[in-house]
């Protein structure tokens, strides 16, 4: 790290759990963020500010005025601009030390396989089951840690699927794909603005811990947040030996 980086990240380096070695791991790491919306916005902001060396953001959508109530990486002047590009502009203003790659087209499974193979951690900030199932399958195959978040209305959830561990369940263990389209989207339903910030920043925290190899991740635990009651609950998760994706 150069002198500017040592100064910028000094509050991390002062933490005994991180110190120079941990911050250097972040600087040399690559995070893939799928979705630059309500969850991806705060996740990307904190990964960038924390000094993750390379961040790749995937989003083929454009910024809409209705997004600005919660998607805090975008500004009013970005309306009509691709979300990945808009996010890149904001992130580089926050931390020019970070390399921000953008994927502005809708990615195929082969595209995601290539992107995931290049990353050290994957953050699923998408808003549809098809993408979630695809990312999960590829992370299982490539043994990449997946930080999964979701939020709607006043309720959110987050967990970590880390297939580097034989004991880890995968997304399909928890939500088996039955082929039905039961999708709920923010475009058609309301969402409490700070909720996505709380889930998205928690995704960032989990990703940073995974990259540095510190603390205890949410692997095997699902955090549920009721923001209306301001109550967190934890559900223990187990691997499904009959899972069609990760079962043996």
Describe the structure.
Helix content is 36%, strand content 19%. With 248 residues, the protein is α/β, with parallel strands linked by helices. It has one domain: 3-Layer(aba) Sandwich (Rossmann fold). The protein has an eight-stranded mixed β-sheet with strand order 3-2-1-4-5-6-7-8, with helices on both faces. Helix 7 (129-142) links the parallel strand 4 and strand 5. The protein is globular, with a radius of gyration of 17 Å. It starts with a helix and ends in a 12-residue tail after the last strand. The mean pLDDT is 94.
Tell me, rounded to a whole number, the average pLDDT. Answer: 94
| Beta strand % | 15-25%
Q: What radius of gyration results from the CA coordinates?
A: 17 Å
**Estimated structural class:** alpha/beta
The fourth-level CATH homologous superfamily is: NAD(P)-binding Rossmann-like Domain
Poorly predicted ranges: none
Question: In a nutshell, what does this entry contain?
Answer:
This protein has 248 residues and is α/β, with parallel strands linked by helices. 36% of the residues lie in helices and 19% in strands.
Topology (SSEs and partners):
Elements: H1 3-8, H2 10-13, H3 19-27, E1 30-34, H4 40-50, E2 54-58, H5 83-94, E3 99-103, H6 109-118, E4 121-124, H7 129-142, E5 145-152, E6 155-162, H8 171-174, H9 193-212, E7 221-226, E8 231-236
Parallel strand pairs: 1-2, 1-4, 2-3, 4-5
Antiparallel strand pairs: 5-6, 6-7, 7-8
Helix pairs in contact: 4-5, 4-9, 6-7
């Amino acid at each position: 790290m150069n002198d500017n980086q040592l100064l910028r990240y000094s509050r991390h380096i002062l933490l005994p759990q991180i110190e120079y070695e941990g911050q250097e791991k972040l600087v040399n790491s690559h995070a893939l963020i799928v979705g630059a919306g309500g969850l991806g916005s705060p996740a990307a902001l904190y990964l960038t500010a924390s000094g993750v060396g390379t961040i790749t953001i995937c989003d083929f959508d454009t910024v809409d005025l209705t997004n600005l109530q919660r998607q805090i990486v975008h500004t009013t002047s970005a309306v009509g601009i691709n979300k990945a590009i808009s996010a890149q502009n904001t992130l580089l203003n926050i931390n020019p030390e970070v390399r921000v790659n953008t994927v502005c087209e809708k990615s195929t499974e082969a595209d995601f396989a290539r992107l995931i193979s290049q990353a050290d951690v994957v953050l699923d900030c998408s808003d549809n089951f098809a993408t979630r199932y695809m990312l999960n399958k590829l992370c299982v195959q490539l043994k990449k840690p997946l930080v999964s978040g979701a939020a709607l209305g006043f309720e959110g959830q987050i967990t970590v699927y880390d297939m580097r561990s034989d004991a880890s369940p995968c997304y399909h263990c928890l939500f088996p794909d039955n082929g039905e389209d039961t999708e709920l989207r923010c475009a058609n339903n309301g969402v409490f603005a700070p909720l996505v910030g709380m889930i998205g920043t928690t995704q960032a925290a989990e990703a940073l811990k995974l990259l540095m190899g510190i603390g205890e991740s949410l692997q095997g635990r699902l955090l549920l947040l009721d923001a209306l009651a301001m109550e967190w609950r934890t559900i223990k998760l187990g691997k499904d030996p009959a899972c069609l994706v990760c079962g043996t």
